[in-house]
Design brief:
By secondary structure, the chain is an alpha+beta fold. It contains twelve helices and seven strands. Helix 12 links the parallel strand 6 and strand 7. The two termini are 67 Å apart.
């Protein structure tokens, strides 16, 4: 595995860094107790050797779905080792800090990996038992001069420093997990807000503006006209004989026709022109500014789309639309502009369909 991919793997897999850290820690115990060779450290040497092997197996066969198994073993192993060490060596060398810092770590893993909530109470109880036992034993044995014999003094100091360091690393790990959870929650909330905002402004079928959003854009155009005199135009179009398409080819075909036709129209128009679904098979096109060739360009696009059949499940469907267009040049009320454009659409429907009808007030 390449270094970059390995780093990404560690970031994405919650338990992996903890297993790796404890594997290294157990292996360090194997080395330290193996070098010392004192009889009282043999049980700790054996325990660390077994723990290292198990952690290595977990790492080599790591699966995110096994987080509950991994964490349960970690809590048991750390707690049992913290109790085993003073029973066999008669000294407590920083393991109380290790089990204490495992409480926030296990809590964060339970939350981040969405493990059963009741497990955190079980883990906390086990770790607290080990912490209380180690702390009580340590304070009871500190006055004992045996701890500070030359050989034991070095081991005591070295392991106190070592487990303090490991505890600090675990705290950093739990802080990073907390940061990861906060980031994930923020990302989810941002996504939900964006999704809700998008749904509030767009038609779910065609992905165009919905009527509410179209009215906002329409009102913005009106405010611009009032402030600097920039006139705008509004076209309303309707798919001809849409009911016949639904009855002949089915409603799925009808939906496909609406999506395909409006997408083709959108691809031919240029910003800042906007398209919205006004209702049913009726759509609105808003031109924030009026160009000299606007009518010619729209008529050309309408004719091009009418000449292109839409294929649905291998069947060619002839699709045409009737357009009515008006502008703010001679009409001051936004509602009257829409009404005028809609009237032009109605006239087009009454006079053969498949055409663009321009209001005399345009």
């Amino acid at each position: 595995m390449r270094p970059k991919k390995f780093i990404i793997f560690i970031i994405r897999h919650i338990m992996f860094p903890l297993l790796l850290l404890l594997c290294v820690s157990s292996f360090s115990g194997v080395v330290a107790f193996g070098i010392n060779g004192a009889p009282e450290f043999v049980p700790s040497f054996i325990w660390n050797a077994i723990a290292t092997s198990i952690y290595l197996i977990f790492l080599l066969s790591y699966r995110e779905k096994n987080c509950l198994i991994y964490l349960s073993f970690v809590v048991f192993e750390v707690s049992a080792y913290a109790i085993l060490q003073p029973l066999t060596t008669r000294i407590v060398c920083g393991t109380e800090w290790l089990v204490l810092t495992m409480i926030p770590v296990s809590y964060m893993i339970v939350k981040a990996a969405r493990l059963p909530r009741k497990s955190i109470f079980i883990y906390t109880a086990i770790l607290l038992v080990a912490f209380v036992y180690d702390t009580k034993y340590k304070f009871a044995t500190l006055p004992n001069a045996v701890l500070f014999l030359p050989g034991r003094r070095k081991i005591f100091i070295a392991q106190e420093i070592y487990y303090t360091f490991i505890s600090q690393v675990l705290l950093i790990y739990s802080c990073n997990l907390a940061g990861f959870m906060i980031t994930r929650i923020d990302s989810k909330q941002t996504y939900l807000r964006q999704s809700m905002d998008y749904m509030a402004k767009h038609d779910p079928l065609t992905k165009l503006m919905n009527r509410h959003r179209a009215m906002i854009v329409f009102n913005d155009c009106e405010q611009t006209r009032i402030s600097d005199g920039t006139n705008y135009a509004v076209a309303i179009f309707d798919i001809d004989d849409f009911k016949k398409i639904n009855d002949t080819y089915g409603h799925d075909a009808g939906d496909f026709v609406l999506k395909t036709y409006t997408k083709r129209l959108w691809n031919k128009l240029k910003e800042p022109v906007r398209i919205g679904r006004w209702g049913g098979e009726e759509f609105i096109v808003i031109f924030p500014t009026i160009t000299d060739n606007l009518i010619f360009a729209l008529e050309k696009i309408r004719a091009e789309l009418a000449a292109q059949p839409i294929y649905f499940e291998g069947k060619a469907i002839a699709v045409t639309a009737t357009y009515g267009i008006s502008s703010s040049r001679q009409i001051s009320s936004p509602n009257k502009i829409i009404t005028d454009a809609d009237s032009m659409l109605y006239i087009g429907k009454q006079n053969g369909k498949n055409r663009l009808v321009v209001s005399e007030k345009f």
